[in-house]
Each structure stands twice: as structure tokens, then as C-alpha cells.
Description:
Elements: H1 4-9, E1 19-22, E2 28-30, H2 31-47, E3 55-59, H3 64-76, E4 79-82, H4 89-99, E5 103-106, H5 111-120, E6 124-127, H6 135-140, E7 157-162, E8 172-176, H7 177-190, E9 198-201, H8 208-221, E10 224-227, H9 233-239, E11 245-248, H10 250-257, E12 272-275, H11 282-292, E13 297-302, E14 306-310, E15 324-325, E16 330-334, E17 348-353, H12 365-371, E18 378-386, E19 392-397, E20 402-404, E21 407-409, H13 411-419, E22 424-434, E23 438-447, H14 455-465, E24 474-477, H15 491-497
Parallel strand pairs: 1-10, 3-4, 3-5, 5-6, 9-10, 9-11, 11-12, 12-13, 23-24
Antiparallel strand pairs: 1-2, 7-8, 13-14, 14-15, 16-17, 17-18, 18-19, 20-21, 22-23
Helix pairs in contact: 2-3, 4-5, 7-8, 10-11
Amino acid sequence: MPNPLYDTLFGKYTGHSTTFLFMPDGKKISHDSFIRMAGRSANALSEMGLSVGDRVAVQIDKSPEALAVYAACVQSGLVYLPLNTAYTPTEVSYFIEDSGAKLFICKGSKEEQLVDVSSKFGASMETLNADGTGSFPELTQNKDDSFNTVERDAEDLVALLYTSGTTGRSKGAMLSHSNLLSNANALAELWQFTAKDVLLHALPIFHTHGLFVATNVTLVAGGSMIFIQKFDLESIVRNIPNATTMMGVPTFYTRLLNDSRFNKDLTRHMRLFVSGSAPLLSETHVQFEARTGHRILERYGMTETNMNTSNPYDGERRAGTVGFPIPGIEIKITDSKTGKELSNGEIGEIEVRGPNVFRGYWQMPEKTAEELRKDGFFITGDLGSIDHDGYLQISGRNKDVIISGGYNIYPKEIELLLDDQPGVMESAVIGLAHPDLGEVVAGILVPEHGASPDLDELAKTINSSLAKYKQPLKLLVIPELPRNTMGKVQKNILREEYKNLFMP
């Protein structure tokens, strides 16, 4: 194929009047209309003088027009660089400089803050707003709605996604046509997506989950999406009866469970609920199934690899696990120091190999060599174990391992115990500096609504259940855990806030 990703996801829909996007205001956008919108955008990009391989950075709100920019970049042979809408001008400055982006598209309200950033690094700047207005849509007006698709190879770069950068510099993960296409095809088959599916899409589209999983899988299957700008409880409740599938993060599902309207009757037409981007509490699994009759399907992925594993569509969706390797993908657990493969049940570094694994980090050959082995296995930085039934369980990030008095402590083990205690909704376990032991364990608790956990009783339970070196030296109660846009707990913020708790 001349352009593997475009031809598979978009090009095949030319002339198809089937509905692609259902908008909250009742508007419907057909597959063909969307392809024509993308064609006008591609012609606008071409007339701006952009060449194959040029990077296009976007920091824009979710909209059909924003999605069309993604399709236009793929069709034009440009490299698409989506940026979290929460990034500050300082952060955006780094991404534009590091990527060498030739074009930066932002929402109009940020133009004044970002125009100097864009010009400083030689990037043209246009605007695109959530309502479809802005300088870039103006450029697309009266443009031809067909565009001669640029030929690309399966291994050519199609997207550049930066890691969150909680430690050190953010790294740009280079993703190819085959990376994205292989994953979309595998997931569509695994989760049994068809043209009859209507996906309730409330995720952002600057992230792997909302763009390369939810959108790409739907396009591969020929289905449609209810395209909601962000999670809004009323909008979700109103639209669930019209959907067959939903992809979300844990906070989506906990918020739905807090609404009495969310029940079996509301979800009777649903086929599948998928969760990812952050671990789902076992309690949420249980409550969700009791309330709706549906068992949430949890999967595991990351920026560098898209999706790696999934609980089965048919078969036991086991709480506390992320299932089995997706077909075509290999998973192994290794000793982080020696690289030796470990046996089932042992906790170690999760390594991944398959067509989904990225091409390396943008302009960081040393970092690429450090994390991407010569045999193709990617060292994820996540810790986990494979049980005797083959299910993968995530134990946390390697950097989150606590070393106290020479002992390795895995926070997940303690968090699971804390989460099960009366009055505790969720927890985060962190390591904090200690003058004698190097690090000690601290447990951060979020109480259930209206509850006040008995810390003395909690301590007794912990003391009887865990070896002394694993026991939290301090338990703290806070209203909520800090999370990023995708719902992941930001332990780096907690460590910074409480860094002096045990220091003189």
C-alpha cells in the first residue's frame, strides 16, 4: 500500500455515507464528510510549504477538526505531535525546540502566550478552537477536498509522542505506520469490534489511549463514535443507551458508580467497557459488575508501545491483572540488574517485544540503546509478575521501588492491603528519605466518602500482615491523590511534598 496507515484507517471511507461521528449537539458527520475535511486540511498543510517528515505540533481541544488534522498529517506524510492541553508555555517551548516542529497549532485563547515560543524556534503558528473556528480552519476554506496521498513505507515515522517527563527530560517516542497499524488491527480483532459498534469516546485525543487505541480501533472496524469533548457525567449518562462500547480511565468508572442512574437498565445495550492508563481498584471491578452485570476489561500499554496486554474478551477478566500478551507480542519478566529472565510468580522488570514497539527516542540514541535491547525487547520500567495461569500483574514503576535498610519493597503489595481496609477508598505508598535506613515507607490514604479511617486499627492490621521492614512508618490521610490527565497517580508530587517528613 502507498500509505499503510492512511489507507487502512481513512482512505477506504471515501464516498461512504455511514456515520462516523455523533456529536453532543445532535450533528452527525459521515465517514466521507470527515475524509473530505481531512483532505482540505492536507491541502492547507501542503500549501504552507510543509514537506514529508516535517513535524506538526498541536495543542488543541478535542473536536472533529482536530481529529482531521491527525488524518491530514498521516495522508501528507507529516509527523503528528499531539501535546497535552495542560502543558505550560515553558513545557511547550521544550517540545517545539526538541522536535524541530515546522508548524504549531494551538487554541486561540493560548495564542498570545505561545506566539513568542513558536517564533523563537522557527515554527509557523496557527489556531484551532473547539468549535472549529480559528486561523487554520480559515486556511482550509475553499481548498480542494481531495488530496493525493503521499506514499509512505510501513516503517516510516508517523507520530512523535513525548513521555510525561516526571523525571528528567521528556523523551519523544518515535512511532511508525506499522507500530500503530499492527496494534489497531490486533485490538479490533481481540475485542471483537465491528462496523456495528458505537464507541462512547470521552477521552482526550492527545494521548495514546484516546487517539491510537479508541479512534484507530474504531476506524479499523468501520464503527462510529459518540464524540464527547471530555468526561461529563450528564453527557455520559445521556449517551450510554446509544453506545455499544466505552473506553475510559478508572476515574470515569468510579464517578459513574457514584451516580444511582448508572445501572443494568442503562447499560443493557453495552457490549464492552475497557479501562486503562492507570490501575483499576479491585473494589471498582466488584462494584461495577454488581451494578451493571458487566465486567470491565483492563489492559496495559504505554506511550512507547501502545497496548501490550489485555484481559480476555471471552474468559475470566481477572481483577488486579492486565491479562495476557496481545497476539504477536511477547512479554517477559527479567531481573533489572542482570537481565536474566525470571520464573512465574517472581517480580521483575517487564520487557516487551513485538511490531507495536516504537523505533526509539527522538534524538536520544544513548537513551534508546539503554532501554531498547538489540534483540528488540523494550525495557518498560514497569515491574510485574506473571502468575501460573499466564496473567500479568503490575507491581509499579521501577523508580517507585523503595529500598529500606537494604531491602526492596514493592509499593503495590502494601497498597492492595491498605485499599482493603475499612474506610479507605484508595492509597499510594511512597518511599521517603530517612537518616538511618535510607528510605522508609509512608502510606497516603484517601478515605471513603463520609468515612474516617481508624489509623491505630489500620496499623495493627498492617503490623500483623507485613514484615516489619515493609510496614509504613507513617500513615497520612488526604482528600485525594494527585493525578495526571489520564488518571495516573503522580507519586513524584507526593514524594516532593513529604520529602522532609523523616529528616532532621
